Amino acid sequence: MKEPIYFGIRHLSPAGAYHLRRLLNEVKPKLVLVEGPSDLTGQMEHIAAPETVPPIAILAYTQAAPVRSILYPFAEYSPEYQAILWARENGAECRFMDLPSDVFLALGKARQEADETDAGDRSDAWAALDAHSGEDGHETFWERTMEHTAAPDAYRRGAGEFGKRLRALTGGQGPDWSETVVREAYMRRTIEEAMQEGFAPEKMVVVTGAFHVEGLKTAVPMTDAEFKDLPRESASSTLMPYSYYRLSTRSGYGAGNKAPAYYSLIWEGLNAGDPTLHARSYLSRVARYLREEGNPASSAQVIEAARLAGELAHLRGSSVPALRDLRDAAVTCLGGGSFAAVSRGVADTEIGAAVGAIPEGVSRTSIQADFYRQMKELKLEKYRGLTAQELPLDLRENRTVKSQKAAFLDLERSFFLHRLRVLEVSFGQKQAVSQDSATWAERWVCRWTPEAEIELVESALKGDTVAQAASFRMKERVEGASGMSDIAAVIEDAFTCGMAGAVGYATAALQAMTVDAASLEDLAATAMRLSEVLKYGNIRRLDPAPLEPIIRQIYLRCCLILPGACSCDDAGAKEVRAAVERLNAVALAHDFLENRLWIDALEQVARRDDLNPRLSGLAAAILLERGALGEQRLDLEVRRRLSRGVPADLGAGWFEGLAQRNRYALIARLGLWRSLSDYLDGLDENEFKRALVFLRRAFADFSAGEKDAVAENLGEIWGLNGQAVSEAVNAALSGAESEALAADLGSFDFDDF
Amino acid sequence: MSDQNIQHLPAEELYQKELNALITAERDPVPAGWRMSPRSVRTYICGGRAGDTLITPKYIGDQRLVEIAIATLVTDRALLLIGEPGTAKSWLSEHLCAAINGDSTQVIQGTAGTTEEQIKYSWNYAMLIAQGPSPAAMLKSPVYRAMETGTIARFEEISRCAGEVQDALISLLSEKRVSVPELGIEVPARKGFSIIATANTRDKGVNEMSAALKRRFNIVVLPAPATLEEEMDIVKSRVEQLAGSLDLNAQLPADEVVEKVCTVFRELRSGQTLDASQKLKTPTGVLSTAEAISLLAGSMALAGSFGNGTVADEDLAAGLQGAVVKDEDKDGLAWKEYLENIMRKRGKQWAGLYAACRELNR
């Protein structure tokens, strides 16, 4: 049988695209077959549409969870893209010829399972190639040998040979070999079908990965029965805009390309018939970027860099610099030997910021359709622009309008924007609002970028509507949560998104986690978050009642473990303190929480001597504030804590804790200051010095007014004029005093602190 | 044949055989003024084969940096090698000159006292006074001679020279000619002329280089060896060469010993243990690979002269102490901490060295 014309390529290869176009112009085929899922041939019409701007990608994904996807990205210099374009321009038939996407996805599942056990692949052959070429990777090897060939037919023969050898070395190995065999059998079937249809083989061009050329020539076509037996999974697909940045972050043959903007420079150079255009463009762009950033980069330096790159290429036996040479030359001549100096310019030049576009309304995924429908319903369409616009929302019911829908328009908008936020679709950015309106107002800045469109399409993998996808994402987050506060964050999000279902789900997960041991800090942070939701949840018209039991549970647990948690060093005490303050706020905020429990726990902490004295002091302060510690008890406690014989750091530390809250309550109690004064009087000099360190810290953040009040108290106790004492206390140290202090401190032993 | 009693033979004499083999086996085009092609220079520096002759690697490390250095010289740009002390800057510059010109001795050794005359030319004053300016009364600097002959001059420690002296190079490098107003002549540089300068990034007492001068150089930054294995390779091969030329009557240190020294150096240099699990205090010294080499050579001398001919832990300990502790107070503390926190807990293999080091610190 006569064979069609095969053109082996590497995906995302400018030289491949260039030489393929040339061959197509020469052969003028009636049919072009391109490697790609055969059921997606319909997308070609959109791919080749004049409004379409690459980079774009075809995304196929399973409908059932867990969602798996395959992605076919096309840049302008993708041979496949150019083949499709050529066919449209010249009125030739063009088809995808690979396995349909539903089969592909089903096979992918099998491969994923196999991958985990067998990591063989073709890596051995690649490693050997790298060692032989002495380059920094096969990317560079390929670029040097293939991407700059201008000679007619050299690319096709070279790629053919490359594929043949690689196949000879690795054929039959690796986890994806069986898949390769199936794919080639199917592609062979497509080719033979086309010939039976009446396309003459010499008027048929097959564009496929170089690796498959030999396989396609020898494969046995798949029979109908075999085709029927293939596994399938129902799948959807869409055409989506893509970006160079995304191309560069995907690694692996076919899917990505580390330097997409650089490769487009090669493509330009090939089309202009100037093989070193890319080198000059690259270096000039880096230099221009540096200049725009305000760094000097002269034309002379660019010229030197170009010469150096040329010589580096010569050392490797090539006349055209590769990316590696250009980057090294830029570092040496423009960056003074340091990569950091040029890294941003290099990244900008190699990766670029290009984003693709597809015609309006083309193959929308259901989530896109849902998005646009809601945009219209919520009257948000005017915010869908490239310039950022502010959108203030008032979440309260608007009583001036008639319909229920209009009354809560802003709330619905808020739900919608929050759902997009959860999906990480960068459409709206939430801004901070002032405190007095924080409960009912929101301020968003909306901006629609192509990146956001891409993110939206990617969310299609998570669900068919924005709400579904957001719910799926929250479920994922709950499943992957490493701590309670992660789940609490989900619950918060679920409320802001107005999704009761997710609240229930996350609450259950949180409840399960509370049973396991968790630290007081975690529990308190979670309780605080939930408490906020509970307090302000009403405005979002969601019933927060399901949260009550969980808060009660966390609260109970906190009360039980509080005394234990207070047995810690001073470093740990800081966190416990924050937790205690939070819990106190929670206990005060909700009537359904039994206050007795909290008071009892605090009583215990305040009473015990074996806990961190500062936390004991804090507990006493809170009790005082809540009226659970009488004057008499306080006085007793002060005397007990501040008695001689109690080490100074413990006594003064306790006082520091006590002074952390509600200072006016302390200042108003003269007895307390009398006790403190008596205590200080009773200390010997050394003890006094030690106590001073702690007391100084305790009073450090007292305001001048507070210090005045304290001074007045002391004045009364010492029988002095309060004002004079205050002046003495608030005055700055004189020179002599601070010198004396410094000398004193020099011999002071700080080791214990 | 050259005199074997010279302390440090120039590279072109030490490796004459290899250079000749490379020149004989040359197949690629040779740039004007060069003795061999850029690729052969790379083979000479990084190792390989020339015909039947094995070429030993001279620079162990990133081959790409060597390529950039060579390519720079092909484009007749001046080359500036920058790096911390002991990262083989001078070593690389010497070998590049040896390979390209067969002459690594056109050197200006930069100091704070270097003058502009030493960079351009000066006069034999007796003759100058007796006969007036004449070519015979002129003393040409290495740079002058390199320009005349189309070869490469080396400028060591360029950052130690005063700024105005460094500036003398600016017009030399951009115009590639030196004018002698006294004789009314201008000497153009022949093809092949270039300068390889080296500069230190960390030492004290260096001058900042002007941006104008930096622009005239292609700058290559030489890093400290990337891995322990690489550093051990460098140390081993250099100690072997040194032991040969210094007639140290001791056996070469065992791999285990080299590994210990390199480990200690690398850990203290980077401020963390090799497995990155513990942070360490770094001493003030640079602890370069070059120091590790001289430390081992010193230990061999100790072992050869006063010991039994094999490098023992005691011989190492003295050297390590001296290399690490440069500033008594600070470094002493860092070293003691290292001994107690890291070395002591390393197990049996290190026990001997630990005991010996501790003995010195009593």
Helices and strands, with pairings:
The complex is a heterodimer of chains A (753) and B (362).
Chain A: E1 5-9, H1 14-27, E2 31-37, H2 44-47, E3 56-62, E4 69-74, H3 79-89, E5 93-98, H4 101-115, H5 123-133, H6 138-147, H7 154-170, H8 177-197, E6 204-209, H9 213-218, H10 224-229, E7 235-241, H11 244-249, H12 260-272, H13 277-292, H14 299-315, H15 323-334, H16 339-350, H17 366-377, E8 389-394, H18 404-407, H19 409-422, E9 428-431, E10 441-446, H20 450-459, H21 466-479, H22 484-496, H23 500-515, H24 520-536, H25 547-565, H26 570-589, H27 595-607, H28 613-625, H29 631-641, H30 648-658, H31 663-667, H32 670-682, H33 685-700, H34 704-718, H35 722-730, H36 735-746
Parallel strand pairs in A: 1-6, 2-5, 2-6
Antiparallel strand pairs in A: 3-4, 3-7, 8-10, 9-10
Helix pairs in contact in A: 1-3, 1-12, 12-13, 13-14, 13-15, 13-16, 14-15, 15-16, 19-21, 21-22, 21-23, 22-23, 22-24, 23-25, 24-25, 24-26, 25-26, 25-27, 26-28, 27-28, 28-30, 29-32, 30-33, 32-34, 34-35
Chain B: H1 11-14, H2 16-24, H3 38-46, E1 48-50, E2 53-55, H4 63-74, E3 78-83, H5 89-101, E4 107-109, H6 116-119, E5 121-123, H7 125-131, E6 138-140, H8 142-149, E7 152-156, H9 163-175, E8 177-180, E9 185-188, E10 194-200, H10 211-215, E11 217-222, H11 228-246, H12 255-270, H13 289-306, H14 313-324, H15 328-341, H16 348-360
Parallel strand pairs in B: 3-10, 3-11, 4-7, 7-10
Antiparallel strand pairs in B: 1-2, 5-6, 8-9
Helix pairs in contact in B: 2-3, 3-4, 3-5, 11-12, 11-13, 12-14, 13-14, 14-16
CATH level 3 topology of the largest domain in chain B: Rossmann fold
Cα Rg of chain A:
36 Å
Shape verdict of chain A: elongated
- Coarse shape of chain B: globular
Which strands sit side by side, in order, in the main sheet of chain B? 4-7-10-3-11
Quaternary form: heterodimer
Report strand order across the widest sheet of chain A: 1-6-2-5
**End-to-end separation of chain A:** 91 Å
